[in-house]
Amino acid sequence: MVVIGKVAVIGGGSTYTPELVDGFIVHRDEVQVKEVALHDIDPQRLEVVGGLVERMVRHAELPTRITRTTDRAAALDGAAFVISQIRVGGMAARIRDEHIPLAYGVVGQETTGPGGTLKAWRTIPVVLEIARDVERLAPDAWFINFTNPSGIITETLLKHTSLKAVGLCNNPINFTRLVAGLFGVPDEAVFLEWVGLNHVNWIRRVYVEGRDVSADLMAKVREGLPFYPFDADLVEALGVFPTWYLQYYYYPDRKVAEMRAAGKTRGEVVTEVERDLLRKYADPSLVVKPPELSQRGGALYSEAAVRLILSLVLDRRDVQVVDTRNGGAIPDLPADGVVEVPCVVGAHGVTPLRMGPLPETVRPLCQTVKAWEAWTVEAGVTGSHRAALMAMVTNPLVRSVDLARVLLEEMLEANREYLPQFF
Amino acid sequence: MVVIGKVAVIGGGSTYTPELVDGFIVHRDEVQVKEVALHDIDPQRLEVVGGLVERMVRHAELPTRITRTTDRAAALDGAAFVISQIRVGGMAARIRDEHIPLAYGVVGQETTGPGGTLKAWRTIPVVLEIARDVERLAPDAWFINFTNPSGIITETLLKHTSLKAVGLCNNPINFTRLVAGLFGVPDEAVFLEWVGLNHVNWIRRVYVEGRDVSADLMAKVREGLPFYPFDADLVEALGVFPTWYLQYYYYPDRKVAEMRAAGKTRGEVVTEVERDLLRKYADPSLVVKPPELSQRGGALYSEAAVRLILSLVLDRRDVQVVDTRNGGAIPDLPADGVVEVPCVVGAHGVTPLRMGPLPETVRPLCQTVKAWEAWTVEAGVTGSHRAALMAMVTNPLVRSVDLARVLLEEMLEANREYLPQFF
Amino acid sequence: MVVIGKVAVIGGGSTYTPELVDGFIVHRDEVQVKEVALHDIDPQRLEVVGGLVERMVRHAELPTRITRTTDRAAALDGAAFVISQIRVGGMAARIRDEHIPLAYGVVGQETTGPGGTLKAWRTIPVVLEIARDVERLAPDAWFINFTNPSGIITETLLKHTSLKAVGLCNNPINFTRLVAGLFGVPDEAVFLEWVGLNHVNWIRRVYVEGRDVSADLMAKVREGLPFYPFDADLVEALGVFPTWYLQYYYYPDRKVAEMRAAGKTRGEVVTEVERDLLRKYADPSLVVKPPELSQRGGALYSEAAVRLILSLVLDRRDVQVVDTRNGGAIPDLPADGVVEVPCVVGAHGVTPLRMGPLPETVRPLCQTVKAWEAWTVEAGVTGSHRAALMAMVTNPLVRSVDLARVLLEEMLEANREYLPQFF
Amino acid sequence: MVVIGKVAVIGGGSTYTPELVDGFIVHRDEVQVKEVALHDIDPQRLEVVGGLVERMVRHAELPTRITRTTDRAAALDGAAFVISQIRVGGMAARIRDEHIPLAYGVVGQETTGPGGTLKAWRTIPVVLEIARDVERLAPDAWFINFTNPSGIITETLLKHTSLKAVGLCNNPINFTRLVAGLFGVPDEAVFLEWVGLNHVNWIRRVYVEGRDVSADLMAKVREGLPFYPFDADLVEALGVFPTWYLQYYYYPDRKVAEMRAAGKTRGEVVTEVERDLLRKYADPSLVVKPPELSQRGGALYSEAAVRLILSLVLDRRDVQVVDTRNGGAIPDLPADGVVEVPCVVGAHGVTPLRMGPLPETVRPLCQTVKAWEAWTVEAGVTGSHRAALMAMVTNPLVRSVDLARVLLEEMLEANREYLPQFF
Questions:
Q1: How far off is chain D from C400, nearest CA to CA, in Å?
Q2: Please, which residues 327-346 of chain B have a Cβ atom closer than 8 Å to chain D?
Q3: B210 chain-D contacts, CB cut-off 8 A
Q4: Distance, in angstroms, between B258 CA and closest chain A CA?
Q5: Number of C-alpha atoms within 13 angstroms, CB side, residue D43?
Q6: Among D228, D245, D249, D418, the one annotated catalytic
Q7: Residue D108 in domain
Q8: What angle do CA B300, B305, B309 make, to 5 degrees?
Q9: C315 near A CB under 8 A
Q10: Which residue out of D314, D321, D354, D358 would a mutagenesis test of the B interface target, given it has the greatest number of B Cβ atoms within 10 Å?
Q11: Residue C298 clears pLDDT 70, i.e. is over it
């Protein structure tokens, strides 16, 4: 069992925090954290969420100390790991990101389309500030980014700071579990040739116990796979399996119609879920992660985070799908950009496997979204209006330059208070 | 002065033919063609157009023999040059290509979007038949392709036949003349760093007498350039000059609105222009190219064609913008695909200049359209429904998989008689 | 514990076989082999070596059945693993490979220089015959190649057969142990950024427990590292650590002088070692691997082989350095060639890590040797004299075309009986 | 006819200067130079050579003014073209470059091997000083480099200054004339697919009047081509035609034997030729370029120089083989390095043709020499001993690290006075 000094959680008031701490409880035989330092700008949430995780830890009889602070430097100082799960502008900003595009018939979603662009731009100035603190106070720490859009934020950190940053998403572990369930095997028996970017990825081949079961999985898709939103004829034409978020790119009209029909945006739904959750969290008799948390959308996040931390600390050199610098793993994407691919994770860091060229059925979409990401990073860091226009124009969900211009103007204005780089 | 034995014109009944023959008349001091063999499947047009060009040649006192035939083999046999300017399905098919997409709010245009896809698919079986004849009857001939979509047809020929094929478009020569006019110099003083594909290209730098005048041209765009359909802020953001057909990609909503407002499609307009032209052509007193031809859209075609022929015959090794195999001239496009770039043209053939990576502002659009072209070629040659769906899905003007599927079905059905490979 | 049906050992009469079987004894808790089928063309060696390993297995009370046969098909039929450790032409041919170049002042060595070329050419026809049998009789078997030159033979198999072939060498495991010893840690704590080809590789970075100890190792090289044959100033200039066999490329004059001074070639020494070993093996009282075997040169081979087999069978997906198809892992080497790099090994197969471009200090040597390997494969498979001359000319130890021609002629002639492809 | 203000010739006292001025006389109908400013550090040579060219110009009744100065700034000020043909250390240094390697059995030659390395290192500090003057006094001038090793010096200028530098060699024009002679056509009818580096290049295909005559030329090589030093079987194996200087790489032992047998080095021979030439030049009755100049080795230099100047001034955009930045013209060489390939030359500058990957028969040699060039530039600019060792080790004519070290030490010492960057 390995002992870690301090894990700092930026955005510690997030409703996800109990999920993360639960991970440390579940994996107590492998890793013990001396201190979990929760930082948040919202003292009230910090108290509610911090209170719950403190009770969880005590209940589990873990020696871990839970500290809470609104002083970021105090939280970061000397941390071995920094976990970032912030949401700049909160749910209110997310809901604006959803509504404005929708009014123009464009997908309003927090990581894809114009919504993802604006979320990135609000986040980048803050995450760079955090990074400057980390560079100063915990220069050897691993920085694990959960903040969406995870690939873009990780790329910002890798291009513009000296942080040892890794991006994480629960999409890979969820798909792994889906396959494991379908084939009746444990997660460990599944190996996915996962290629692409965060939220824009495809599975080229699916192995179960080393056997290529891609054709079997295709047959299941044809029969109809619950919660898998892609038509079999598209999947067959692609020759690879698109994952969840690609529905926004393949079926934007369908998604826009659904969103409009829904009445509420996802952000509005989540706001209610969170309100309920926080009410539950505040209950002093609650000493374990409540089951409702899984509706929040972060299922298996703790699993992903703890597995990553364990391999970084224990030098496991096992294979995990994370967001890291490409460096030629996928030769038809820029070398300096971030990709989401299987990587060997050890104490030395994160080394991607050689994935080779993108399948030609998905190459242009992946290249286009990657270009959007790069422009989003550039505009988010520099505040360049030219880069901002290019980000909007390049996004495949924005169908014309005229629309790009209108959306850009309206959304910049709506987020003015969070965008010091632009105003 | 060089003498060429036979120039075969496939689609010789095209209203463009007088333009081409006029080129030989204008350049009579440099090149003399012994025989121009006009082939067409429409005997009536052949008679009208053939009659005019015969009168033109006689009036110019050129020794060139004009022959007309509906027997393709006879026309091709022993030709030194084959010029292809066919239109499979005629204007009626073009008008269908325009109307069907427009009904779904998609640009209906003969070379971009779904219209371009279907025009390619109608043309590919016929052009491959022609190619088999050329391989047999004129294996050393240069095959100059004017038939649209010119890049796709040329790629088909270079990938699937042994022809010495070159694609040609009047877009480069028109832009050259535009610049020459703006700066008050002859065409020869202009050098354009032209990068991209047929109808999807940008000018990276503009030189006049070797001086980089890109910034001057940008200033003129900002002041407002007649007939240049791009907003200055887009051009400035791109950092390169888009050319004419890119308006369909940058402003699809604007173009759809215009098309809908116009009442008539371009195909319908051209049908009338052609009817009038052919009436004029039939007038036995007409002995020169009528001025109305320039409205037809092929301005300077003859100039481009004759310049290409002269350099191929005279081994001039000068620089011309044509469509040819990429081979790394633009490293971020497939090596085996066709690109439109400045090339050295000599008797040895066509060698592209090293243009280097695409500007990052235009890279994803260019890569996406190139992928659409490649799928269009594959589907057009094999009749694969999977490739056909990928062609539709990949086209940037088709906004979703659902729309792609609907358009594909309806347009294949509407073109059934011309698509033996699919049915 | 996993059970494997049959392991076929081609060249089972090799003095290395006890080493391999010892590996199965040591790892008995993880893997159990039902049958080890030894095949050899020399019945006498088969009897001696087979007798020993049978006694070893019995003594260890392993249920493994040892079978011996001179019928290759019988040995291969139904095997789950095929291990190839043949030596075509035996030690006599090796000694010729050493003497002929040496007479011209060229390194005479069994895997580098002209000796490696000829060893490859003798081996290729035989290994292709074996491969045809494997394709027929054990198409799903993993083919583990120990036969030198291991990279070239593996490349031959991957380019010209359908075998699931992996090349193996004890060089990586030996260097790992060297580092482990220097830093006082177990092998597992060491992670090497191993780049290059079989016998032509460098270590870009050395990690111990995830810490980059490259500078510490460099300091030890400067102090003088026993058995490490490279000058500190060369290693510092390279910026990476060359491994053992590179001394032939960096110090060919020194090595030629040593070889000449030695009186005996390595092949002659090994012949004697083997004679003694076989005498020992024949002693019916010997029931364990004799300690003298380690002098033979294959130290830790069994360790490497068993680790590879275990990961392939148990789907471990751990990192091992093996020889496999490049596919862009090192972008400045051909994608279809074999490289030696860290790979994730699981039941799905072998996936290289993305190693990125070669360090520029070693790039040209590595590219040159890779080109020699590719020509050697081509000539070895086709018998093309042009390819054979290119192989000789390209080898960096052959200093001129004139010398290449002389060596080629003399060495082909000396090996005539083993080179059906050339004669 | 175009008028050029001032052409500055650095190293104007070179015996080549009359060759250059003769070029202006021959091409008087196309170009007229107002002033040729000769600069040299040797006033005596300046007087002799300057005197001759002045008489040549007067005799030809050209209005060109010949000025002579030892003040470099005065010569450069306001020049439209700067031509560099300096020799740092003079013939004495060259002779040392030849003798030292030869003593170790290594080719002693002024552009290849260790001699080329040292010549580059002596030249780089001086050429960078000149470049600083040009940046200041003639920032828009074209800088035409004749100074050997021409590729390395041009790469130095393109990497480390802002000069519009082009490298020139008479090798391409000589080979063109050779082919023209063999096929009985004028130079203009020949088109060579020239790939590689200065003095390390191959002709992939030879066209005469657009016809591929490579096979015909190969037949002539087999019959025996005067002055073509390559065996037919090597040329056939390569599949491309090596040019003159490659004999040092393909036949180093043969060349060393010849050099040793010759008694005198090439530098010693040239010293005598130059002494005689200068004596002739001093003769006031001499008013034209003396025929003996052609023995000096720079045949057709003037032709190459004047053709280059004319295309740069007249915006001819014709194809010439010069040394320029690669930028992907040959994708398997570094993009930022200098290559020697066919380029389109116009007033906009020099744009290489897309030559595509190197033939695989020559790739490793070309890549190795390119790496040597890059290390030579780096060491020459920085004085880094590590880079200097890498330059020596990488050179294919230096057969071992031990030899590299010895040669490096001895040759640095012998050139101490010219190597401020190292000492």
A1: 5
A2: 327-329, 331, 342, 344, 346
A3: 312, 315, 346-349
A4: 14
A5: 3
A6: D245
A7: yes
A8: 150
A9: yes
A10: D354
A11: no
Percent of chain D with pLDDT over 70: 99
Record: contact D403-C367, CB cut-off 8 A:
no
CATH number of the domain residue D126 falls in = 3.40.50.720
Contact (CB, 8 A) for D408 and D388:
yes
Q: What is the pLDDT of residues A29-70, one digit of tens each?
A: 999 999 999 999 999 999 999 999 999 999 999 999 999 999
| 8 Å CB contact of A236 and B386 | yes
Check CB contact of B234 with chain A, cutoff 8 Å. Answer: yes
CB-based burial of residue B92 (10 Å sphere; 0-12 exposed, 13-18 middle, 19+ buried)? exposed
Contact D364 C368 (CB under 8 A): yes
ipTM of the predicted structure?
Answer: 0.95
C5 touching A, CB under 8 A?
A: no
pLDDT digits (tens, 9 = 90+) for D394-419: 999 999 999 999 999 999 999 999 99
Q: What is the pLDDT of residues A154-204, one digit of tens each?
A: 999 999 999 999 999 999 999 999 999 999 999 999 999 999 999 999 999
Residue B337 included in any domain = no
Q: According to the model, what pLDDT value does residue D298 have?
A: 67
> Helices (DSSP H) in B230-332: which residue ranges?
232-238, 247-250, 252-262, 266-281, 301-314
Look at residue A198 and tell me if it is in a domain.
no
Q: Any residues with CB less than 8 A from the CB of D98 and at least 6 apart, and which?
A: D108, D109, D110, D115, D259, D265, D266, D267
Q: Which residues of B touch D329 (CB under 8 A)?
A: 354
> Please, what's the b/e burial string for A187-222 (b: 16 or more CB within 10 A of its CB; e: otherwise)?
eebbbbbbbbbbbbbbbbbbbbbbeebbeebbebbe
Reading phi first (left if > 0) and then psi (alpha if -120 to 50, else beta), residue D80 is in alpha
Q: How many CB atoms lie within 10 A of CB A357?
A: 14
Catalytic entry in B16, B207, B228, B245: B245
**pLDDT tens across B222-241, in order?**
999 988 999 999 999 999 99
Out of D110, D132, D167, pick the residue that ends a domain: D167
**Residues of A annotated as part of the active site:** 245
For the segment D67-125, what is each residue's pLDDT rounded down to a tens digit? 999 999 999 999 999 999 999 999 999 999 999 999 999 999 999 999 999 999 999 99
Whether D and B touch (3+ CB pairs < 8 Å), yes or no: yes
Return the sign of the alpha-carbon dihedral for residues C351, C356, C359, C362: positive
pLDDT one-digit tens code per residue, A64-102: 999 999 999 999 999 999 999 999 999 999 999 999 999
* Among candidate residues C225, C250, C222, the one with its CA nearest the CA of residue C236: C222
Residues of chain A contacting B234 with CB distance shorter than 8 Å = 389, 393, 401
Q: What does residue C211 show for φ and ψ, rounded to 5 degrees?
A: -95, 135
Please give the tally of structural domains in chain C: 2
- Domain of residue A120 covers 2-167
Say if A48 falls within a structural domain: yes
- Segment 151-210 of chain B within 8 Å of chain D by CB: 189, 191, 205, 207, 209-210
- Would the CB atoms of A364 and B363 count as touching at under 8 Å? no
**pLDDT of residue A361 exceeding 80:** yes
| Active site annotation includes C245 | yes
Which residues in chain B come in under a pLDDT of 50?
Answer: none
Distance set, CA A189 to CA A199, A209, B185, C308, D316 (Å): 23, 5, 71, 18, 66
Nearest to D352 among B191, B211, B354 (CB): B354
Average pLDDT over residues A283-291: 92
Task: Check whether C294 has a pLDDT greater than 90.
Answer: no
What confidence tens digit (pLDDT) does each residue in C88-113 have?
999 999 999 999 999 999 999 999 99
Judge contact between A252 and A259, C-beta under 8 A: no
Tell which of C147, C167, C187 closes a domain.
C167
